[in-house]
Each structure stands twice: as C-alpha cells, then as structure tokens.
Amino acid sequence: MDQLKGLVSENAYTILNEVEEKRASLIAALQELQVRYRYLPEAAMRQVAARLRIPVAQVYHVATFYSAFSLKPKGKHIINVCLGTACHVKGASLIMDRFKRDLGVEQDETTRDGQFTLQGVRCVGCCSIAPAVMIDEETHAHVRQDKVPEIIKKYRPSSPVTPVRHPPEPSPSSQTSGKPGK
Amino acid sequence: MIKSLADLEKVASEGERRIHPPHLKVMVGAATCGIASGAKDVIHAVEETLKQFGNGAASARTGCIGMCYEEPLMDILKPGWPRITYSHVKPEQVAEILSAVKEGKVVKEGLLGKIEEIEDYTRNTRYRYPLENVPPEIAAVENLFGLEFTAKQQHIAMRNCGIIDPESIEEYIARGGYRGLYRVLTEMKPDEVIDMVDASGLRGRGGGGFGTGRKWRYCKAAEGYRYVICNADEGDPGAYMDRSLLEGDPHSILEGMLIGAFAIGSQQGYVYVRAEYPLAVKRLEKAIDDARVHGLLGSDIFGTGFNFDLRIVKGGGAFVCGESTALMASIEGKPGEPRAKYVHTVEKGLWNQPTTLNNVETWANVPVIAVRGAEWFASIGNPESTGTKIFSLVGKVNRAGLVEVPMGITLREIIYDIGGGIPEGKKFKAVQTGGPSGGCIPANLLDLEVDFDRLWEAGSMMGSGGMIVMDSETCMVDVAKFFTEFLKDESCGKCVPCREGLSQTHEILKRITEGEGQESDLDLLEELGKAMQDSSLCALGGSAPNPVLSTLRFFRDEYLEHIKNKRCPAGVCTALINFEINENCTGCTLCVRNCPVDAITGERKQVHVIDQDACIKCGVCLDVCKFDAVTRNTRNTHSGGKSQ
Description:
heterodimer, A: 182 residues, alpha+beta, Arc Repressor Mutant, subunit A, Glutaredoxin, 4-stranded mixed beta sheet, B: 644 residues, alpha/beta, Rossmann fold, Ubiquitin-like (UB roll), 5-stranded mixed beta sheet, 21 strands
C-alpha cells in the first residue's frame, strides 16, 4: 500500500512539475525577447502574460526587478563598465566617467545615434585583468582612461570620437628626454 | 552509451589519446580572462602555423590554470618532452616558437616552465612526463608547479582546469572523471554517501560554510520531490572561481551534482548561472549535452535504475539571487526576493519541495571525495575547515590570479609568497575578503590562518573566496562607501532595515568622503549597522554593514582624518584632494593633450598649470606624466574648493 501511495505521489509530482515549469519559463521568455528587441516592448509583455496565463502585473514585476531587462530600447552595442571591487580599487569609476564624457550620456543611457548604451555591471569576473570593460560579449582588459576613445572607435569606425582638442604634436626630442620611467 | 566500468575505461583511453596524442599538440588558455588578454589571436596564429606543419599536429583550448597574470598562456606537448608553457605569448611569436619545437629546439624567450607530472586526484595516480633526453633549455627551466606562485597550491577543485579541453567529456573521463559517480552508484547506499561527505568535513564554499553532509541529511529526511541546485550565480564582486570552474571543468560540477542527487534521492537538478558569463553557459550546455549522449544524465544511469537530469537557468542580473531563497524564487520565474527562513530550504525550497543547494566549488569537490574517501579529504587543511579553497587573489598584488590552497594557510603566505607582494614596492594596507558581506583585514592580522572560523573572528568572512589586496593608495572610507552603494543598488527592497539602512549608511559615508562628516556620524554608522544585523530578513541585509563595521574597527583613524582634517590620506576622495604641476615639468605637453576637460595650460618647454576650477581630478595627467611633475595633494590646497 505504501508503495502504491509512493507511486501515485511520484506521478502527481511529475505532472505538477510540468505545470510549474511552464510558469517558470517567464524569465527565459523575457530574456529571449530582450535579446531580440534589445528591450521589452509592452505589446510583447502582454503577449507573454496571455500565453503563460499570468497577470500582466506579474510580468511587469519581473521585468522591472532584474537588471537584465530594460523597458527602454537599448543601443546596438552595450558597454558594461565593470564596477566590481578589484576594478574599483584600480579606478573603474574614473573609467566610467570617461565613457560618460566621451559618449555624452549618463549611466544607463543610450547615445542619440542608438549605437551605445552605457551601463555599470557589478562584476564580470575578470578581476585579474582589472579594470575591465565588457562590450557586447567581448571583454577588454587593463582599460586606461586615455584608451577609452580608441575602444569606442573600434565599435564606431565611421565617426571617430574626438572630444579632446589636440594641440600640435611636440617634436620627439622634447617628449623623450631620457627620464627614467616611473 | 556508458553503462559499465569497461565502457568508462574505453572512453577514458580515447580521452587519454586526446590529452597526450602521439603528435605535437598546442594548447592555449581560453577562459574569459585569457581571451581578454589576447588568446584569440594566439589561437589563430597557432592554427595557421600548425596547418603548415601537417602530420596531425593539433591545437586545443583549455580552461584557466589560475596564472592570470601570465596570460595569454600557450602550452606545448611534444611526444618525448614534458609539457612546456610559454607566457605573455604574442601572436607574432607563435610561428617561431612552434617551428623551433618541430625541429627539436626551444625558444627561450617567454618560456615560463615545464610540467613534470600531473596529479590525478580522482585515481590517485600521477602522469609523469619524460624528463630525459630533452633540450638543455627544457632541462634548465623550472617546474611550473614549483614556481613561487604554484608551490604552495594544491589543485583539487581546479584539478582539470588548464589541463584538459573543457569541451571534451572524453578528456574529463580520462582524468578519472565519473568514477566517483560509478563507485557511489554501484557500491554505496545513499546514506553511506551522506556519511562519507559528512565525515570529509566539506563545508559550503559559497560563503556560509555550512556542513555539506549535514545539509544533505536534512534534505533527505524531508518528505517530497527533492531537487538539487548548483548556485552558479557568482555575484561577489572580486571573485571569479566559479566562472573559472564552469569554463575550465564543467563536468566536475555535473558529476558532483549527480552524486548529491543520488545521496538525497533527487531526479531533477538546476544550475542557476549568471547570464553575464556567456562562455560558462556555453561550456555547461555542451557538457550537459555530452553527458546525456553518453548516458551519464537521463534514465538508468550506469544501469542502476538511477535517473537524473539537469536544466540550466540563466540569471537576470540580480546580486540578491545568490541568496538561496531568492535564487529559488528566480528559478520559479518570480522576482528574486528572499523569504524568511523559518522553514529551511532543505525542507521547503524550490516549489516548496525539499531542495539541496550547493555552490559550484562545493560540487566540484564531491567527485574527488567519492573516490578518495572522507579520510583523505579531511587530512587536508584544518580540522574544522577541511580541504582546499580557491581564492581570487586580485587588486594591488603583483601576481593576480586564482589560487587553490589548503585551508589554514596564512594571509601572508597567500599575498606575499604566492602573490609576490604589492606592486611598485608600495605598502600593504588591507585585504578585503568575503565580498560585500565581508570585511577588511589589516596588516597586523597578516599571520591569520585562513579558514571559515578564523576569518569570522576577524570580523570578515570566507565568502566565496574573493581576496582583494589594498595598498596605501586605497581609501578605506571609499571602500566602505563602494560596498554600501553596491548593496544599496542590489537590495531587493523587501525589508525596511536593509533598504533604508543601506541608503542612510550610504548618505553618511558620502558626506564623510566629501569632507562634510561629523564625529558623531561614526556612532550613527555603528548603530545603523547593528540594527541591520539584528533585523534584516536575509543574509544580504544581515551582513551588509560588515564592510563599514570592519573598516571602522580597524581604520577608524582614516575616517577621523576625513572628518576632522578634511584630508583623504590615500588621495582617492576627489572632493578632498587636488592635483598640481610642480617644477619637474619639462613642458612636453603630454598632459595637455590627454586632459579630457582641457584644464591644463602652458607653453611648450614651460611649466604647465592646472586650472583648479575646471579640473575634474581624474588623474590622467599624473598617469601619463613621465617626469613625476604632477603632485597629488591629499588635502585640497585650492581655496575655491568645497573644503578649505
């Protein structure tokens, strides 16, 4: 009898699991939509709610809880400046400031041409090569402030970013006058 | 399909031929950090060169061996030679190095070491490479595992990282993989497995340090449809060992979960992994597919009637989801908000069913225990904290990387012997352990033995193993502010003490770093911290004040310096510092050209001047100056500033 009871509950669990897993697919569905549209359009969220038979409010709750989702369209390239601890002690906030200035946007904003969205990320797990910046799925190591324009240029070759006014190049002699490195 | 030990051996010999082929093989470390350091171009160069060689010469990708400071790494295996390793490899060097090897010669430049033997923990054997009749350069170069960085390490969880191709199940099996599972399924009863893990003393590597065997026992005792979960939502900033294990040896985690599932009686598992780790997800997916194809996941595993399958769930980017109840809510498709643990997750976890959740590193240790036994594992480390622990040794340290060391090693040994001390001869100030829940440990505790309990006593914690070294140019108030800001953003907002406590703490710290602090603020910070510890709903809030409390405990003077003297001794807090150009200036104009806000003026070959009102204190001028002509003042000498 006990064995039979065990078997019944086992089967019931399997059925219930299937139901529950359907509900759990909400996040995965939103992730796919986010990849496809680079944000979550309202119409798509309503469709998800209808299809999974859950309230729209629940979809909205999840969509606004996780940082992976955005209700505003994101740029073509996502710049994630790592703000983890190792990057922080190696000056990540200065790198972030430089991106902000050079792109002319604040954190979590998208450039007017729709090319870049600037974000901070809590840690990309590349602490040994800090400070790190992840652009789309590519990680840049040991990023320096003065290298930022170059990095941006790599992703936007058509319009070079030159926020700095460049005075004429000095003659080579004045630049390298035999001073030992720091 | 693998159904027996003989099947396993057959796959193993196939894998062995892949690990040690009868022809030249070149391996490049291709974990995320390796790729970021330029491994992709090196791989391309290797493939191009080998194409010309013919004769079955092969290239392969491995995970990260932990020597991140030497990346990109290239390993060469030539029959009759030990395995040799080149560091900081540039694509243009590859052809020269490999052509020499082909002709039995060795390029000395960049040669880091040789691997004389590799230990197979899961079979208690060693693979020895031939060391005789090798070129003199190889005879002379050091053993890779005898370098300062490696000598004190013991790679148990990382046993295959950097050794095998993580995308090859054959190579994993050749290194003793799935033998622990075989032994457990065919020789042991579930309770015996739990007893074994209990006796091994294995404690949760994710941070809490709870006894793994005990957790399994509670879970097995609970009624219901049991689940196992691997917590791969590595959220602690500054820790990346989970990513490295997932990228370097995904099967070890699968095998650990299979053993755990058998012990507690579970048929379904989940791996909850960060979406920010695309490569880890990819390798994990491949590992799961391969295990299914070989019959190591699915039904009737090893013909014993044991069924188990695994699913990957990608996280949505919320730090709080590292907390077990929040993680389970997230798998259920809900916002990752924790719940109070009156009832533990081992009884009512995922979908209210009994659930065993362990961290990546914990799972990776299990197969070794299953083969080598509890006693062997318990003999490593300290009696109360057995085995090894992986630390990510990063920050202001010469040799940054992943280190796996026996528990009980001192901080000094890790930072100085393994890590090579602080760069540019600067002074060690503190080491931060335990992520945002941990604390900062000062120099006078450098001889502290590192294990779960000692770190706890020092006001910090093991956490997942982040170890961020800080030097005299790291401001401790700024560090406290950094963690508080981080946690403020990541607090789910469900309970008041955490939500409001963190934002108020952050306000106060911000005030202090801007030179507007008062002495009474320090008491207020302590009071707030205490309240959060006592009344927060989950561990995130309960441990959130630790960075503030531990820096207050060990670095109170630095807080007072900010408050009383409006000075940031480390020269970090921008409101309290400024930059000036001194008489060393040769007028090379380099700083002028690099200043992002055009705040520097001066004629060529004349001493330049910084416009203090325009300066944003980014410090680029100091970084680029070759003549030590830029001074960073730890007190703002400009009278127009906020603090006078």
